[in-house]
Amino acid sequence: MPFVTFSHAAALAELHDVSLVIGSPTEGAVRRAKAPFHTIEVVRMPLLERTFAWIVRRILKNNFDTQMWTAYLYPFSLAFEWYAWRQLRRRIYSGEFDVVLRVMPMSPVLPSAFSTFLRKGPIPFVIGPLNGGLPWPRGFSQLENQKEWISRLRNVYRYLPFARSTYRHATAIVAASSQTYSEFAAYRDKLFFVPEPGIGPSSCTNDARNPTPGSKLKLIFVGGLVPRKACDLALRAAAPLLRNGLASFTVIGDGPERGRLEELAETLGIEEEVLFRGWLSHQEVFQGMRSADVFLFPTLRDNGAGVVFEALASGAVPVVVDFGGPGDIVNQEVGCKAALTNEDDIVVQMEEILTGLAKDRDRLKRLRRQGMAYARERLTWAAKASDVTQVLQWAVRRGPKPDMPPPKLLAAGSVSSS
């Protein structure tokens, strides 16, 4: 069970009597976490679980970043819900529960059989937060190097069993991005926006920075070194400051692009000011974030923005491309965004942003302070659970309909950053 989903469920369990329904492979880890769930209901499918584990190991090669993962997950997801329904339906009809909330899978292309099972009651069905469906912007070599053939078949999901009934019968749909929200615009009367990730209270600390006048601007990148994360754009944008001794750059993460990025740093003449640290522990990542001035993250296709949440909480001012999850979360009060145009123009935009922040440390400090407050007040798991609670209360007719629009109103499939 992914950490994001577990953390969200655990935060809801702080507010409500939550019965968490999980598959047996994650039972041990979930029970060891000791979250305050009312009950933990384990669905056991031994043969299907062994089959799925074999596919992940032998066919997917444990690569969870491939889009094939979603395609293989479809039949197993439906099978899990069928087993869960058989296990819990008597208790559902007996009145033990008020609402069914499906929080995973997060992908909107993976429908739910529960929506059909509950179409005539006795309790409402809510799905989300859902995230995904970002288009692939054209003209970026980074994306062409990572785009998979199966991405062309994404819309086929609309014709699969339960695809349309899931959203037609759902009482409420929670979208975790402006892009996903736009995909379900036809259901706007029951559609709400709540971001996908969150952060724990321990991530929100006071700012311990005490920079000396004239000190170098400390830049940091955190993420997998894969093409779509576009760390090469970050290096190119930071190069003028680095060559002039006005900044230093730490890259945390690893992946197939590392060798090429190290070569790029040498070509740009900035290798002395760029430190590639590889994979680090979560605690070490936070230490890096808390000492950095700017989190430079020009990812070109990211549905979520968990690392941006962590940067804001740590006081590293985010500089991102205005697209996907990072574009939803960052606003002008807490960070800076470059418009999604083309590679060279994004580099120019980010170079100008970094130069401005290096010269105007008061603005940098103001953005840092406002970003840390924003993280504490709006980006914690508790804040997310509170927002989802408003949706659930409305779904069970115990509260008013909440007003939760997305940060941007987009046309479905749009790549606009306006």
Q: Describe it for me?
A:
It is built from 16 helices and 12 strands. The chain is an alpha/beta fold. The chain folds into 2 domains: 3-198 and 380-395, Rossmann fold; 206-378, Glycogen Phosphorylase B (Rossmann fold, 3-Layer(aba) Sandwich). The strands form 3 sheets. Strands 9-8-7-10-11-12 form a 6-stranded parallel sheet, sandwiched between helices. Helix 8 links the parallel strand 5 (172-175) and strand 6. It is globular, with a radius of gyration of 22 Å. The model has no long low-confidence stretch (mean pLDDT 91).
Q: Features of this protein?
A:
16 helices; Rossmann fold; alpha/beta; single chain; 2 domains; 43% helix; 6-stranded parallel beta sheet; 4-stranded parallel beta sheet; 418 residues
**What proportion of the residues is helical, as a percent range?**
40-55%
How many structural units, i.e. domains? Answer: 2
How many strands, what sense, and barrel or not for the largest sheet?
A: 6 strands, parallel
**CATH topology of the largest domain, which one?**
Rossmann fold
Output the radius of gyration.
Answer: 22 Å
Following the backbone from N to C, one meets helices and strands in this order, namely HEHEHHEHEHHEHEEHEHEHEHEHEHHH
Strand order of the largest sheet: 9-8-7-10-11-12
Total of helices: 16
Query: Architecture of the largest domain, CATH level 2?
Result: 3-Layer(aba) Sandwich
Low-confidence stretches: none
Shape: globular
The structure class reads alpha/beta
The chain-level mean pLDDT equals 91
What is the distance, rounded to the nearest whole angstrom, between the alpha carbons of the first and last residues?
A: 35 Å
Q: Percent of residues in beta strands?
A: 5-15%
Number of strands: 12
Can you tell me the CATH class of the largest domain?
Answer: Alpha Beta
